[in-house]
UniProtKB/TrEMBL annotation:
<dbReference type="GO" id="GO:0005669">
    <property type="term" value="C:transcription factor TFIID complex"/>
</dbReference>
<feature type="domain" description="TFIID subunit TAF5 NTD2">
    <location>
        <begin position="154"/>
        <end position="282"/>
    </location>
</feature>
<dbReference type="InterPro" id="IPR037264">
    <property type="entry name" value="TFIID_NTD2_sf"/>
</dbReference>
<feature type="compositionally biased region" description="Gly residues">
    <location>
        <begin position="96"/>
        <end position="105"/>
    </location>
</feature>
<comment type="similarity">
    <text>Belongs to the WD repeat TAF5 family.</text>
</comment>
<feature type="repeat" description="WD">
    <location>
        <begin position="652"/>
        <end position="684"/>
    </location>
</feature>
<keyword id="KW-0677">Repeat</keyword>
<protein>
    <recommendedName>
        <fullName>Transcription initiation factor TFIID subunit 5</fullName>
    </recommendedName>
</protein>
<feature type="repeat" description="WD">
    <location>
        <begin position="568"/>
        <end position="609"/>
    </location>
</feature>
<feature type="compositionally biased region" description="Basic and acidic residues">
    <location>
        <begin position="352"/>
        <end position="363"/>
    </location>
</feature>
<keyword id="KW-0804">Transcription</keyword>
<dbReference type="InterPro" id="IPR001680">
    <property type="entry name" value="WD40_rpt"/>
</dbReference>
<feature type="region of interest" description="Disordered">
    <location>
        <begin position="1"/>
        <end position="58"/>
    </location>
</feature>
<feature type="region of interest" description="Disordered">
    <location>
        <begin position="84"/>
        <end position="108"/>
    </location>
</feature>
<dbReference type="Pfam" id="PF00400">
    <property type="entry name" value="WD40"/>
</dbReference>
<keyword id="KW-0805">Transcription regulation</keyword>
<feature type="compositionally biased region" description="Low complexity">
    <location>
        <begin position="34"/>
        <end position="58"/>
    </location>
</feature>
Length: 745
């Protein structure tokens, strides 16, 4: 079984509450309540003002009692001053808070804190209180507090009327506003449905779902299937989907003109039910300028929590490459024989630099050399770099006229058990992870795999001899492949270290293991994840590695530390793939929540959030110059991202199934994509990036018009007989290697 089949997060997990990683922005619009100032729903005009006042007073006293019990004296004094309570309040009567949002402290400067506390009081009392919830991402609410947000706010029979009224209004506005305001349908539908279910209005909830679920965008169908299973209040407790919707605000990007239209409509209709949901559960990112078109909105929509906020992609990203160490490349024998033609190697060096893979000059967009500590180069590393540079002089320059040759490695008789593949940088070894818990390593050169001799035999070796590295290897153990045993569950990720001395593997058993390729034994089992680990990858400089899995948290490790150095929390779904940036200062993670995040290794901050995919992301690849990122998903599309501007700049359509492997050629001219549709496709990456003019980037609105030029960029499609492509690798001379397991069914 391939990793695609098993990595879809089908099984429910105990409430893992990572929340959003970005703090709630100061720019979040908090529109005034409708002009009548009432927080009671329009459907219940019979509510008496004195009853509301009494309920608010009871809530306020409950909060004060909670603060006193926890000896938060300063908070008690501050809340009393804000609420205008001069005397010490008496014991709070039974907390039966009504439909008010925020209570008497709603206008205070500390309203967010008061709201959070109010939620806890309501949750602890298990009352049906309509309390303002704690803000998503700032807190880790328990289930009772989360559910308290869905207390009854109106007549359940009128929910369809509220929603239909808004739908009718949006369908009546001008086309330019309709596309933007239609984004409200999905989050409002979800929250109104959950509110009905929580308050035991099962028949009304079912009718509401059946009437309006068909109106939602097609890319939310998987979410709606999960939601349709939540038909009773008991189903909601501990449900991760509910926690996702509740603890993270759904982000909508709307122009100011469209927003003013919506605000005016809700105030005129006094539709407090929808207004309250917008205030509590949605984050409206308002921009000045022309409203976006339907195609522009669709290209960025589809993630579990809406679009990324614009400020989430404003941080500076040092995407440039680190300066390469000065290493003199000795002349080859053939070069020396060529009558010492000094110009010969010099002509080849610019060829390598022009391909943008490694730079000898300091890149202005590169991080400082010592921004993060990197391992020092060993002598063996320097020798390897010399070999790399020699290979680069013989590299084929790819382009539309010179496409790469493709060598396909097919794994036979694995009965769909192949779940992960990796090649070493020099293409000499290939590793596979399997569903039977094993990791297997093959040599793809005539040189066989050998273990180091036993300690007793090593003591007899002359350590001063020139060929000591050869003598320590045991010829008796030579074979074309080795099997590594240790995991207790399917292996979902494998990654070779740059120096080819180590191999990482991640598994369903929740561990990442480090294997020695000298002894073919397990050196360390890193335990930090509590659930399956879907992917792991070594840094381009070795030493560091990253892992991500079902617990939605990516972890940064160092090989000599048993505990992770960083934890990257923020995704609302499984982390399905992880990749290091070429300069090792950043880590990209793709997730089942249909977003990609870029994390700063130095401080753990999330510096980019990319939305646009309509299905879980399964492949990521950085361009060799570090400026761009490509991502592939179950939606069959490959999206291209500009890291510096934080924007999507291209969409490659052609695959008919999950894009499971992506790789740029060594010069960055070609992008190869491999899919479960049994094809490898080659794309003109140079043209895709060259066509994007920086003038197209609109900083104010944060979007551009994507050219629909997939067919122009597609250079070739290569079909296998029945082998899904799960890994791609370009050799140092730009030969493309692909791998997958033959599917006989």
């Amino acid at each position: 079984m391939t990793r695609l089949a098993v990595s879809a997060p089908g099984e429910k997990m105990a409430a893992v509450q990572d929340g959003g990683s970005e703090p709630e922005g100061e720019k979040e619009p908090q529109p005034e309540l409708p002009s009548d100032g009432s927080s009671a729903p329009a459907a219940t005009p019979a509510s008496k003002p004195e009853e509301q006042q009494q309920q608010q007073q009871q809530t306020l006293l409950a909060v004060l009692q909670f603060l006193k019990r926890n000896k938060l004296i300063e908070s008690v004094d501050a809340l009393r001053r804000e609420a205008g309570l001069a005397d010490e309040p008496d014991e709070a009567p039974g907390s039966e808070a009504g439909g008010g949002v925020g209570g008497a402290a709603a206008g205070s400067a500390d309203s967010a804190d008061a709201s959070a506390l109010l939620s806890r009081v309501a949750g602890a009392a298990q009352s049906g209180a309509a309390s303002a919830p704690a803000k998503g991402g700032e807190d880790q609410p328990d289930v009772s507090v989360v559910l308290s947000a869905y207390s009854q706010q109106g007549d359940p029979s009128l929910y369809q009327v509220y929603y239909s009224g808004l739908k009718k209004f949006i369908e009546s506005v001008l086309d330019c506003h309709r596309a933007e305001l239609s984004q409200l349908f999905y989050p409002l539908f979800v929250h109104m449905y959950l509110e009905l279910v929580y308050n035991n209005h099962e028949s009304e909830a079912k009718a509401f779902f059946e009437k309006f679920s068909g109106d939602q965008e097609c890319y939310y169908q998987d979410d709606l299937r999960v939601l349709s299973g939540l038909t009773k209040k008991e189903h909601m407790k501990g449900n991760e989907t509910l926690l996702d919707f509740r603890t993270s605000k759904f982000v909508l990007r709307i122009s100011r003109d469209s927003y003013q239209l919506l605000k005016r409509h809700l105030q005129e209709r006094q539709n407090n039910q929808i207004w309250n949901i917008i205030q509590e559960h949605l984050y409206i990112d308002i921009f000045d300028g022309m409203p976006r078109s339907k195609s522009q909105i669709d290209s960025m929509s589809g993630s579990l929590a809406g679009e990324a906020r614009r400020e989430a992609n404003k941080a500076k990203v040092f995407y440039g490459l680190l300066k390469e160490p000065e290493i003199e490349v000795p002349l080859d024998d053939e070069d020396e024989e060529a009558e010492n033609e000094e110009g010969k190697p010099k002509k080849k060096k610019p060829k390598k630099d022009s391909m943008g893979s490694k730079s000898k000059k300091q890149d202005p967009n590169a991080p400082q050399q010592n921004r993060i500590p990197l391992p020092e180069l060993k002598d063996s590393d320097k020798l390897d770099k010399i070999m790399y540079m020699k290979e680069a002089t013989k590299r084929i320059r790819l382009g539309p006229e010179t496409l790469p040759s493709i060598c396909f490695y097919t794994f036979l008789n694995v009965y769909q058990g192949l779940t992960a593949v990796d090649f070493t940088d020099d293409s000499s070894l290939i590793a596979g992870g399997f569903a039977d818990s094993t990791v297997r390593v093959w040599s793809v050169t005539p040189k066989k795999l050998r273990k180091v001799k036993s300690a007793a035999d090593l003591s007899l070796i002359d350590k001063e001899s020139d060929d000591v590295l050869e003598r320590i290897m045991d010829e008796k153990t030579a074979s074309e492949s080795k099997i590594l045993y240790g995991h207790s569950g399917p292996v979902y990720g494998v990654s070779f270290s740059p120096d080819r001395n180590y191999l990482l593997s991640s598994s369903e058993d929740g561990t990442v293991r480090l294997w020695s390729l000298q002894t073919f034994t397990c050196l360390v089992a890193y335990k930090g994840h509590n659930y399956p680990v879907w992917d792991t990858q070594f840094s381009p400089y070795g030493y560091y590695f990253v892992s991500g899995g079902h617990d939605r948290v990516a972890r940064l490790w160092a090989t000599d530390h048993y505990q992770p150095l960083r934890m990257f929390a923020g995704h609302l779904g499984d982390i399905t793939c992880t990749r290091f940036h070429p300069n090792s200062n950043y880590v990209a993670t793709g997730s089942a929540d249909r977003t990609i995040r870029l994390w700063d290794v130095l401080n753990g901050h999330c510096v980019r959030v990319f939305t646009g995919h309509k299905g879980p992301i399964h492949s990521l690849a950085f361009s060799p110059n570090g400026k761009y990122l490509a991502s592939g998903s179950t939606d069959g599309r490959v999206l291209l991202w500009d890291l510096g501007h934080g924007l999507m700049i291209g969409e490659l359509k052609g695959h008919t199934d999950t894009v499971y492997a992506l790789k740029f050629s060594r010069d960055g001219e070609i992008l190869a994509s491999g899919s479960m549709d049994n094809t490898v496709r080659l794309w003109d990456a140079f043209k895709a990036f060259d066509d994007v003019e920086t003038d197209d980037f609109t900083a104010a609105t944060g979007h551009i018009h994507l050219p629909d030029n997939s067919q122009e960029l597609l250079l070739g499609t290569y079909l296998t007989k029945a082998t899904p492509v799960i890994h791609l690798h370009f050799t140092r001379r730009n030969l493309l290697l692909a791998a997958g397991s033959y599917n006989s069914q």
